């Protein structure tokens, strides 16, 4: 297992994502964090903004790169000779969606194997969507996402309020 991709929408990255990245980085030679478009989610940050936040959060890991890709994950894996896809599993509720994606990716690119890491229980409830929702109502999320991501999130939410 030399090269793995950790795909997601990362809008924005959370401490739960970082926990998974750190663990994968300790298992393989090279990890690509791939920021992809989830057609079911409307983004708050642009892909480039998300990339900047992830780069800052993983700067202590020298075998991790961060890319943006607007196509299919299976095509990204094929084009870049990546045969391991890593996803975090937080709860049973994630399972159905994850199984569907893993099976579809297997159909599109059979060489890629999806492996799942159990999320650290302290982050089992954590998602980017919940962080944005709570922050949108001025709830405290400063200990759930990296420092720069928190700063940019608060700025973005203020900008959105000003535009309203
Ligand atoms: O963090 P998310 O939103 O759960 O990640 C989902 C993501 C972005 C990995 C998924 O939507 C994806 O792979 N999008 C890229 C387009 C694609 O390949 N879609 C088919 C997935 S089977």
UniProtKB/TrEMBL annotation:
Sites binding ATP sit at: 9-10, 17, 88-90, 98, 123-129
User: Which ranges does the record mark as transmembrane?
Assistant: none
Return the Pfam families for the record. Answer: CTP_transf_like
Where is this gene product found? Cytoplasm
Q: Which cofactor does it need?
A: Mg(2+)
One record GO biological process: coenzyme A biosynthetic process
- UniProt-annotated site: Transition state stabilizer, residues: 17
Quaternary structure and partners: Homohexamer.
HAMAP family referenced in this protein's UniProt entry, alphabetically: PPAT_bact (MF_00151)
Q: What is this protein called?
A: Phosphopantetheine adenylyltransferase
In the UniProt record, what gene is named as encoding this protein?
A: coaD
